[in-house]
Amino acid sequence: MMTHSSFSIGEKDFLLDGEPFRILSGAIHFFRVHPDQWADRIRKARLMGLNTIETYVAWNAHEPRRGEWDATGANDLGAFLDAVAAEGMFAIVRPGPYICAEWANGGLPVWLTGDASIGLRRSEPGYLAEVGRYLAHVYDIVVPRQIDRGGNVILVQIENEYGAYGADKEYLSELVRMTVDAGVTVPLTTVDQPQPAMLRDGSLPGLHMTASFGSRAVERLQTLREFQPTGPLMSMEFWDGWFDWWGGYHHTTDPAAAAADLDELLESGASVNFYMFHGGTNFGLTNGANDKGRYRPITTSYDYDAPLDEAGNPTAKYDAFRAVIARHFGVPDEQPARAAAAPELTVELTVHGDWTRGGAEVGFETPPTFEDLGHDSALVRYAVDLPLFEGSAVLAFDEVRDRAWVRVDGVAVGLLDRARHDSSLVIPPGQVLELLVEDQGRVNYDIRIGETKGLIGGASLGGEPLTGWRVTPVDVEQAPDGIGAGGAPAAAAEIGPVALRGTFALSAASDLFLDTTGFENGYAFVNGFLLGRYSSAGPQVTLYVPAPVTRAGDNDLLVLELDHTTTSSARFVAAPVLGPLEE
User: What residues are paired with 545 via a beta bridge?
Assistant: First the structure.
């Protein structure tokens, strides 16, 4: 039970009930962790010596369709904040509306960013109206849980690293007005990288500046102090690891070096929020992407090389940070249990055919985008009758977002991949051209937030327009509903798109690690829960299965392969495999 009554910003310190207080916080994104595991992750934060939990709020998770607000289950922000309070910890809430976070679209809903009349992250009336509705929902949850109302929320952030994007002070002022008018009375903060232009552009008088960095703490805090002569210093994002993208390597940082950086930060008198304390998982289709000249979709794992790994187990970095915190503040005597090996199983698979077919076709003269279709899942099938031609011809698009499997008369003829900047290929003559186009993750950073997906800018064949398209949206999340029992035993190699299913038994619910070796590109479900995407491009090899989605007795595994397989079975292995490290 929280018994404190005030939290404020003093001349040099944060003040809890009028007394100096250092924030020792860790980031846990409630939407990246199964809700039945929230309490475990929060408790382990306290045992590391932390007193606060920070979380973003992902607008697109709460309102994937306009006007349909959901704050239940994995979206229950109130229950998460209450779980933090039950552990005797404070909370920091960062509602955006833009959050970055390597999360799809930076947290902004596709229905919002798909409206070309709306100007994002600025004082444009249509955008502000939608943001106002969103923040009202969030603050309905946050306001009664503030510290001065008997709760545990001590800080609320305005926007997110806005100085890296824009300098619209009227926009920031409107966010502050909405926040204050909703009843938020705790201090309001901003966060920016400690660069003069970003600090200048990303804040307002009356908002407490914090910084994001992962090293050279004294230097970075000195820059922050130059822009904010009074008040407590804080790293709202102390980067203790990094994220991975498909086709890259698994990022790690040295625990001893990270601990030395933390020691320097704490020695300087600053408060800290570890980004991340526990990264969790981009379950479903929620991964973001970056594009700074080359498109790089984020992996399903958001392990982040954090103190708690993706499955919630303490790492060497946890121990190193705990030792540093103990020298400065003390830590609880109790330590969390170490991880046990997960069950190892082999699951024989049955084959269930092309799972991407069967939906309703819609006619278009030129290829529509996903946004034109109002489609917020990962796949759309495009088909068009080909004109007569001899030999071969060049099929071209302005751009493909993000990958397209190309077939002529049902035979695979090539692949167009945005990561390679592919936009054309040579095809043979035939009657029907089909492309299965995948959105591999929406860009979460900078000016490409909100970009459209699909086939962009029309299509040409041999330089002539190709028209008369038939288009079928494919809802990946709902695909299991159309796949029944039975099926023939899978062959050693299957050509996709193909659904593969198997049953496995457990003596009790348990965390699992699904080895995706032998599969190329697709999605995996356990008991109807979409674990996320897999790709042979790596670095990630295993998909994390949280124990609460499993059960004692029979369990169902479903793999939706887009490309091909080289195995007739799937394996669950004892520990995660997140791929090779940078040499």
Answer: 512
Tokens 């190892």, located at residue: 344
**Tokens matching residue 367:** 């290829």
Catalytic residue among 54, 63, 87, 237: 237
Question: Concatenated DSSP letters for 72-101?
Answer: SGGG-HHHHHHHHHHTT-EEEEE--S---T
- Quote the distance between the C-alpha of residue 353 and its chain's center: 30
Tell me the C-alpha distance between 475 and 480, whole Å.
10
Q: What is the full DSSP assignment across 133-189?
A: HHHHHHHHHHGGGBGGGTS-EEEEE-SSSGGGT---HHHHHHHHHHHHHTT--S-EE
The helix or strand, by DSSP H or E, that contains position 377, with its residue range, turns out to be: none
Q: Which of 22, 487, 492, 581 is nearest to 254 (CA)?
A: 581
Single out the residue of 315, 251, 313 nearest to residue 280, CA to CA. Answer: 313
Give the integer Cα–Cα distance in Å for 344 and 111. 42
Torsion of CA 328, 333, 334, 336, to 10 degrees: 30
Residues (pLDDT < 70) of the chain are: 1-2, 583
Write down the catalytic residue from 54, 63, 130, 161: 161
For β-strands 454-461 and 350-351, DSSP reports them as unpaired
Cβ(376)–Cβ(66) below 8 Å: no
Reduced to 3 states (helix: H, G, I; strand: E, B; else coil), residue 199 is helix
User: Which burial class, exposed, middle or buried, applies to 365 when counting CB atoms under 10 A from its CB (0-12, 13-18, 19+)?
Assistant: exposed
- Maximal CA-CA distance, the chain: 83
Burial state string for 529-555 with b = 16 or more CB within 10 A and e = fewer than 16:
bbbbbbbbbbbbbbbbbbbebbeeeeb
As a whole number of angstroms, the distance between CA 520 and CA 566 comes to: 9
Q: Which residue has the tokens 């100096």?
A: 20
CB contact at 8 A, 504 and 353: no
Q: Are 514 and 543 in contact (CB under 8 A)?
A: yes
Query: CA-CA distance, 25 to 16, in Å (whole number)?
Result: 15
Is 161 catalytic? The answer is yes
The pLDDT of residue 258 is 97
Q: Respond yes or no: is residue 102 known to be catalytic.
A: no
User: Given the structure tokens 């109130």, which residue do they identify?
Assistant: 78
Q: Are 549 and 527 in contact (CB under 8 A)?
A: yes
- Strands of the sheet with 411-417, listed across from one edge: 362-364, 469-474, 379-385, 432-438, 403-408, 411-417
Put simply, whether the predicted model's pTM sits higher than 0.85 gets the answer yes
**DSSP state for residue 281 in the 8-state scheme:** B
CA atoms within 13 A on the CB side of 186: 32
In three-state secondary structure terms, 265 is: helix
CB 272 within 8 A of CB 265: yes
